[in-house]
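Re: [ENG-882] Designed sequences occasionally contain unexpected residues at chain ends

Forwarding the minimal case from QA. Structure tokens:
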């Protein structure tokens, strides 16, 4: 058996997230990215094939570079041919962009050392229709990059992220190691400015990036003091934070395997 690592991109708009979700009542399973990839591999292999993702993305969240591995019983197919083969059986909103063989004990989730997310925010007038699927439209807002990045100064190193975790998260620890968090501006294909929040951490709590984004935008709009996010974090209380930004603007941007492995 060969262990194959895929890099996947997908438009999460019409998916119930990454993780396969079978209907407990015995009805039709929810549409998920993992489910689509496993169905495609079953057609290639002629048998059920489990896929192990580097992390879960929620309903409506997109990915530029999700990582997932599976075990292939086929010895004759060159690894790179899995890109074309799997894509032939996938819907248009999921694409395999790369494939490589990895050691037998490699696991996309356990071997990942950090995950990078980007959240896109649209704030200009006359936003193109296509942008609405991939960005959060915030009206009457002129972002202050210096202020936003000053608010982010506390998002470094080991952080207790209880204030940014949705209820129902089953994590044993609310602590996450954050390598970087910052804002920058980027032009879309129509020349419009997008505000981008990028954050890299060993792992994330449920809806953590979206809650951080919503809170930071709210603090920036009110021109709150630079230490406001730190004070919210220190309270360890979700009610202290702001709104949860919608899933539309969130992308799993990169999975890294070559960094320092922190707690998971």
């Amino acid at each position: 058996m060969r262990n194959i690592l895929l890099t996947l991109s997908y438009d999460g708009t019409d998916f119930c997230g990454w993780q396969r979700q079978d209907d407990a009542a015995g009805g039709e399973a929810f549409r998920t990215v993992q489910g689509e990839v496993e169905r495609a591999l079953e057609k290639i292999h002629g048998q059920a094939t489990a896929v192990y993702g580097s992390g879960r993305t929620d309903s409506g969240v997109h990915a530029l570079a999700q990582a997932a591995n599976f075990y292939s019983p086929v010895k004759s197919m060159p690894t790179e041919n899995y890109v074309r083969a799997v894509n032939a059986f996938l819907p248009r909103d999921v694409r395999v962009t790369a494939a490589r063989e990895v050691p037998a004990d490699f696991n996309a989730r356990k071997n990942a050392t950090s995950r990078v997310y980007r959240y896109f925010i649209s704030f200009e007038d006359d936003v193109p229709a296509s942008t609405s699927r991939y960005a959060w439209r915030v009206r009457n807002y002129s972002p202050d990059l210096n202020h936003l990045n000053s608010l982010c100064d506390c998002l470094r190193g080991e952080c207790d992220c209880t204030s940014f975790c949705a209820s129902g998260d089953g994590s044993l620890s609310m602590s996450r190691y954050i390598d970087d968090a910052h804002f920058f501006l980027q032009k879309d294909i129509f020349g419009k400015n997008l505000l981008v929040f990028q954050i890299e951490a060993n792992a994330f709590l449920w809806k953590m990036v979206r809650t951080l984004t919503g809170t930071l935008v709210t603090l920036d709009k009110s021109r709150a003091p630079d230490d406001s996010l730190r004070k919210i974090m220190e309270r360890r209380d979700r009610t202290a934070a702001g709104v949860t930004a919608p899933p539309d603007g969130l992308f799993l941007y990169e999975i890294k395997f070559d960094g320092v492995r922190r707690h998971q």
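QA comment: On inspection the terminal residues look reasonable. The first helix runs from residue 33 to 45. Proposing we downgrade this to a documentation issue.
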